[in-house]
Write a structure and sequence with these properties.
The protein is α+β, with helices and mostly antiparallel strands and 179 residues long. It has a single domain (16-159), classed as Glutaredoxin (3-Layer(aba) Sandwich). It is built from four helices and nine strands. The strands form two sheets. It has a seven-stranded mixed sheet, covered by helices on one side. α1 (49-67) packs parallel to α4 (154-165). It starts with 15 loop residues before the first strand and ends in a 14-residue tail after the last helix. InterPro entries: Redoxin, Thioredoxin-like_sf, Thioredoxin_domain.
């Protein structure tokens, strides 16, 4: 039996860099601008219509997230050419990085899949993952899946994040008991 290491709630988010379409680098988990938290969205790649739909829906929640002090970055294992093609179907203004490596996927504890055919894609890719990284660089919220159709519903996620970010709630990171 093979075991994989999973990033746990409350862990420090690993320092991982990825490349944006313009060639600049982004450090995943490090908020930009006035944001103090960051949502890191790992998606399967341009071959996945559910990813395209999810990223476009995420755009409609971007301002509400920004109002909570949370910025957004998305990343996949796609190449620059694949991202360029995918950008034609995306209607997003948040940064999207490419070139997530298998070592980075493993560091994040993501499920990794092989393509079913060359028509799907030409490389192994990460299944969906969502990491909300707080101002201390810790994983506040984590959601990983082995299937493209099991992802957090964005309205519910936003509602929960608003509750967590409310100082009066004093809501801790959940799921930290070791067993």
């Amino acid at each position: 039996m093979t075991y994989s290491v999973k990033l746990k709630a409350g862990d420090d988010f690993p320092v991982l860099e990825s490349t944006l379409f313009d060639g600049s680098t982004v450090t995943l988990g490090k908020p930009n601008g006035d944001a103090t938290w960051q949502a890191v969205v790992v998606y399967r790649g341009k071959h996945c219509p559910l990813c395209t739909k999810y990223l476009n829906e995420l755009e409609s929640h971007k301002q509400a997230l920004a109002d909570l002090g949370i910025d957004v970055v998305a990343v996949s294992a796609d190449s620059k050419a694949q991202l360029e093609e995918h950008l034609q179907k995306l209607e997003v203004s948040f940064p999207i990085a490419y070139g997530l490596t298998e070592d980075q996927m493993k560091t994040l504890g993501l499920y990794i899949s092989s393509p079913r055919s060359e028509q799907e894609t030409d490389h192994n890719f990460a299944e969906p993952g969502l990491f909300i990284v707080n101002e201390k660089g810790q994983v506040q919220v984590i959601d990983i899946s082995n299937m493209p159709f099991t992802r957090p519903e964005l309205g519910t996620l936003l509602h929960g994040l608003a509750f967590i970010r409310n100082p009066e709630a004093n809501y801790p990171i959940r799921g930290t008991v070791d067993y």
